[in-house]
Design goal:
- By secondary structure, the chain is an alpha+beta fold.
- The chain has one domain (about 10-185): tt1808, chain A.
- Helix content is about 40%, strand content about 15%.
- It contains 7 helices and 6 strands.
- It has helices at about 10-30, 40-50, 95-100, 105-110, 140-145, 155-165, 175-185; strands at about 60, 75, 80-90, 115-120, 120-125, 130-135.
- It has a 6-stranded mixed β-sheet with strand order 1-2-3-4-5-6, with helices on both faces.
- Helix 1 (about 10-30) packs antiparallel against helix 2 (about 40-50).
- The longest helix is centred in the N-terminal third of the chain and has 19 residues, at about 10-30.
- It is globular, with a radius of gyration of 17 Å.
- The chain starts with 9 loop residues before the first helix and ends with a helix.
């Protein structure tokens, strides 16, 4: 794919800008709750997966309860292999680092080996409980205070974060010891 001057592919630039436009439209309604933004994020994830030739990716909004709770999104490959989970917070929640230390997110981070925490403009990717990547793609105050669609920032880094998320897979072969360790990590909360 061809890279643009601002980073990312021309298609991903267009996709991310469309996401921010849709985000802004929901925000401008004035009565939107966190859940109001779910379809916008689901469309972004599905469209990005399609754009990057990841056929069969499915995004479930508000999937059934897991052993660790109810994350907002489950992403899977369509063959019963879970790629990861996403926990979304309302756009006005600006301190994702503080939220990452909450009881809920500590539980999610210790249970789900591939997790994104987002407020729809900032994205934190956790692997096995550790922050491995983060990017802010827009400044929400532009939408809330200035009444404009926030300009896209850090498109290439955002594409890289999404690629890391989508390409995650659990190791295919476990020894008895590594399987026991992996299961023990996911059951402690």
């Amino acid at each position: 794919m061809e890279r643009s001057q601002e980073g990312g592919t021309d298609l991903s630039q267009k996709l991310f800008k469309g996401y921010l436009k849709s985000f802004f439209e929901v925000l401008q309604q004035g009565d939107a709750r966190e859940e109001s933004f779910y379809p916008v994020l689901k469309d972004l994830l599905s469209d990005y997966a399609e754009e990057t030739d990841r056929a069969g990716i499915h995004v479930t909004v508000q999937p059934k309860k897991t052993e660790a709770g109810n994350p907002d999104f489950r992403v899977w490959d369509g063959k019963q292999h879970i790629i990861g989970y996403i926990e979304a917070k309302a756009p006005h929640e600006r301190d994702l680092q503080r939220i990452a230390e909450s009881e809920q997110l500590v539980r999610y981070r210790s249970t789900f080996p591939n997790l994104i925490l987002t407020n729809f403009t900032e994205f934190h990717l956790y692997r096995n409980g550790e922050l491995v990547d983060s990017v802010q793609i827009a400044r929400p105050f532009v939408a809330t205070n200035l009444g404009k669609i926030p300009p896209l920032e850090h498109a290439e880094q955002f594409a890289e974060l999404l690629d890391k998320f989508f390409t995650f897979s659990l190791p295919k072969l476990y020894s008895a010891e590594s399987l026991a360790t992996a299961l023990a990590v996911r059951t402690r909360f």
